[in-house]
Write a structure and sequence with these properties.
- The complex is a heterodimer.
- Chain A is an alpha/beta fold.
- Chain A has three domains: 92 residues, Elongation Factor Tu (Ef-tu), domain 3, CATH 2.40.30.10; 108 residues, 3-Layer(aba) Sandwich (Rossmann fold); 84 residues, Ubiquitin-like (UB roll).
- In chain A, 21% of the residues lie in helices and 32% in strands.
- In chain A, the strands form three sheets. In chain A, strands 4-3-6-1-2-5 form a six-stranded antiparallel beta sheet. In chain A, strands 9-8-7-10-11 form a five-stranded parallel beta sheet, sandwiched between helices. A five-stranded mixed beta sheet of chain A has the order 13-12-16-14-15.
- In chain A, helix 3 links the parallel strand 8 and strand 9.
- Chain A is globular, with a radius of gyration of 21 Å.
- The two termini of chain A are 26 Å apart.
- By secondary structure, chain B is of the alpha/beta class.
- In chain B, helix 2 runs parallel beside helix 3.
- Classes of the chains: A alpha/beta, B alpha/beta.
- The interface between A and B is medium-sized, with 20 and 20 residues.
Chain lengths: 313, 172
């Protein structure tokens, strides 16, 4: 599989849902794009940012990639940039990556989304409809702000339930979680607090960890952290990491190249080996055991506990 | 040489009699025991669990499989199964549970004895039951080859992997 970026152009823009822009991207020559697993995302590389967005279109032999982006006024600029695109603009995209796939051995799929978190669920439901997989979809959104509603209703039919009232949603979530036949898997995507609430409800109702799957958008605003020194054991250099600057940014500023993609602790690309010092893990990628081992960290979000960290670079 | 067990597919309970604790987060459970010694373990489980627990004290594997099939039919996520019996029996009952789509973290296992195991011969496909242990050599029931009991147990076949111990040096 290639990791070269794809140079695409904006073929269509849909601003029907307030605050949400759906963008269709194609190759300039119209050639097919790499297929992907439902629930996959692409990383859009714009001016000064790289953001991951779930693909909402057909995952098999696609001729276009479709993403839907919520305008976040105080975000890192990615959504504003996308909301400023016009048809014909060029967009650099890293090929699809799968971090939220349907479990193929599942007997049934319970998909629970909030707000713009519905995007990976759209491709799950599309694939489920194609292959006849049994789904139930619960979608919570603000009145008038639901994305992909007509498409979901078309694909899921009666299996889709939409909610604009928190309490009504919470009550149905409890009922649905309590009544899934054994073999069902749960998938949830939305704001961190929403996914926490869904996960907690599931755990309270006896769901084992192996049946619960989350799609993280990225982390909420992180603490700026204390300054520390990164000692690069292979090159013998020392890099100062000031408060408010990520280790990855500090390394890059010193000309140390580290492979990276999402820069928000999700993708796992920027993992670096640690030989001494205690990492302060803030990513969503490493397992609890890997974090406890302390011999590796994701340098885009994680820092040092203490004033020094030795890295094998 | 056998590597540390945790690096293999062989669970600890497959090499020494072990009783796993019941998962306290369950909303309902079924405990299946095969044989009298296993029955005591299942009864202790039923006392340990807070969630309603169906107790199935069975005399043989076939009855336990039938009881599992019946309970699976109406089960919802939140359900856990607890399987107690000899290594040969619980491996087979576990294979059946996995086939129903149960996950590893929904299955608790207790072994009453581990001195006999099912061994699948890679040469003739016979699955025999032998009094042996991982790393030992035993004759295949089907083809009489001397099989090394390898440190791999199939979840689906419920049997350890056996292959001819001197396969590399044997001359036909």
């Amino acid at each position: 599989m290639t990791t070269d970026r794809l140079s695409l152009v904006v073929a269509a823009i849909d601003d029907t849902v307030p605050g949400v822009r759906s963008v269709t991207l194609v190759r300039p020559d119209g050639a097919p794009l790499p297929g992907y697993t439902p629930g996959s995302h692409v990383t859009v590389h714009g001016e000064g940012f790289a953001n991951a967005y779930s693909l909402t279109g057909d995952s098999i032999d696609p001729s276009s990639y479709a993403i839907s982006v919520l305008l976040v006024g105080d975000g890192r600029g990615g959504s504003r940039w996308i909301h400023g695109l016009v048809t014909g603009d060029r967009v650099e995209v890293a090929p699809p990556r799968s971090a939220f796939p349907p479990v193929m051995s599942a007997r049934r799929h319970l998909l629970v989304a909030a707000g713009i978190g519905v995007t990976p669920v759209v491709s799950h439901v599309r694939s489920a409809a194609r292959w006849g997989r049994e789904v139930e979809v619960l979608y919570a959104h603000r009145p008038g702000r639901g994305a992909h509603l007509a498409e979901l209703a078309d694909l899921a039919g009666d299996a889709l339930r939409c909610f604009t009232d928190r309490e009504v949603f919470a009550a149905q979530l409890e009922r649905s979680l309590a009544a899934q036949p054994i073999g069902t898997h749960l998938y949830t995507c939305g704001p961190a607090g929403f996914m926490d609430a869904v996960t907690q409800a599931a755990r309270r109702l006896g769901w084992p960890a192996s049946r619960i799957h989350l799609e993280h958008f990225g982390l909420a605003d992180l603490d700026e952290g204390e300054p520390f020194e990164a000692v690069l054991t292979a090159s013998g250099r020392t890099v100062a990491v000031p408060s408010g600057v990520s280790l990855l940014d500090a390394l890059e500023a010193e000309g140390v190249a580290v492979p990276n993609l999402c820069r928000q602790g999700v993708c796992g690309e920027c993992r670096v080996p640690v030989s001494s010092g205690t990492p302060w893990h803030r990513d969503l990628f490493l397992t609890d055991d890997e974090k406890a081992a302390g011999d590796t960290l994701m340098c885009c979000v994680s820092r040092a506990t203490g004033d020094r960290l030795e890295i094998d670079l | 040489m056998t590597p540390p067990l945790e690096l293999t597919s062989v669970p600890r309970w497959a090499v020494e009699p072990t009783v796993a604790p019941a998962d306290p987060s369950a909303t309902s459970c079924s405990a299946f025991a095969i044989g009298p010694e296993a029955a005591e373990i299942a009864q202790a489980w039923a006392k340990e669990t807070v969630a309603p627990t169906r107790l199935h004290l069975m005399g043989d594997l076939a009855d336990a499989v039938a009881a599992l099939d019946a309970d699976v039919a109406g089960a919802c996520v939140g359900w856990r199964v607890l399987l107690a019996g000899s290594l040969v029996d619980v491996l087979r009952l576990r294979a059946h549970a996995l086939d129903h789509g149960l996950a590893d973290d929904e299955i608790a296992i207790a072994t009453t004895r581990t001195d006999e195991l099912a061994l699948a011969c890679v040469h003739c496909s016979t699955v025999g039951v032998a009094r042996t242990a991982v790393g030992d050599v035993v004759a295949c029931e089907g083809c009489n080859r001397d099989l090394l009991v390898y440190h791999h147990v199939s979840r689906r076949k419920a049997a350890f992997l056996g292959f001819q111990v001197d396969a590399e040096t044997w001359e036909a």
